[in-house]
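Researcher: First entry.
Model:
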Amino acid sequence: MSDKQIQAQSLMNKEQLQSPSRRAFFRRFAGPAEVELPVSEFPRPPWAMGNNEFLALCNRCNRCIDVCPRRVLRQSDESSSFLQGLPTLSLEYGSCDFCGLCVEACPTGALSRESGEKRQALALVSDHCQLTYNQSCDFCIDACEEGAIKLSASNRIEIDPNGCTGCGECSLDCYNKAISLVKRQV
């Protein structure tokens, strides 16, 4: 065999090693495969970016958690290891006044007043509201500064999802714990 034939054979062997099939050849030209990122079951801090952006930007530095004066931000304890340690909004024992200190403390832009979503949680009323049992109560109506909670014609609590900021005041004032806050669906 001549030197040219040896070089040609060597190139063919390399090509075969790099591309053993026609499918592999075309796979080279395809873009990266889409990756399905996990979605948290808990609300994010106020002004959090969308899920993909938030997951890409948040470095779990906990500055937003440390600076929160109301202590309503905590680390996630979700089952997915990818989501563990990310900041979440926890309104079981406090409310958020949207002071914005968490946004100012965020060094990566995962929380942004310009691009993020302020409203991350939504209040829901359960069936064990006092009004369901024909007992007088309007604490949640009084607590809602946005006026998003009203009494319906059938004497039941109605929460306007467009008016609810998800601050948690109504839940704190409900002595029967009939109001819970859940992650707002985008």
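Researcher: Second entry.
Model:
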Amino acid sequence: MFTSATLKKLILGNVLFFSISVSAQNNGIFHGSISDGFAMSCAGTTSVIAMPVHLVSFDGVCNDKQVQLSWRTASEINSSHFILERSYCGTRWEFVSKINSVGNAAHLSGYSFNDKLDGTNRRAYYRLKQVDNDGNYEYSKIIKIEACQREAIDFSIYPNPTQGKINFVYNGNPSQVQYFEICNVIGEVLYTSNQFETSLNISMLPSGVYFVRLGLIDHSLTQKLIIGDSN
């Protein structure tokens, strides 16, 4: 907040100017706020500040195991670069990458960056730090990307090789299982079920190589099964 201050706004072309007059009663400090683009703050008795970058969008989408980030600026004045920062809690930020900016432009400019996640399935936050040629900087709004990595799913068989009863271990959600089947090497289905089985007695099958397939909603998991000769 500020007291005994006058704030005027003027738009010339694509550049937005703020004229701020602040009395000495408040130590010459004006506290800026968050807009649709970058945050701004300044200090002084009387100053005119030209916002160096007009950010019109900053978005991110999930694609497989990475986040595709993109942003656009409507104009730039003496801009040096952007620093992309990431947080998993929204408070502690870490450096991701430095992206050089156009510098000076009176037209739309687009940027993009693909951020590979750290292998965890969790929400991520991103923000941009826009740095001018003179070292001043401003932060963008914060965007949130929901968890977009598929959790690691383990499907295993033991004992393997076997001669009789076999056990199956699956650490996923059993309600996601659409089918459970055992096939021979030429693809013939020898056993099938519409739910996950924790164990089976396959002593009736001859020795050889088989495949156990677990069908989920959007993909399937397959393990090789070897049945040994009981003799």
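Model: Note on the second entry: The radius of gyration is 30 Å.
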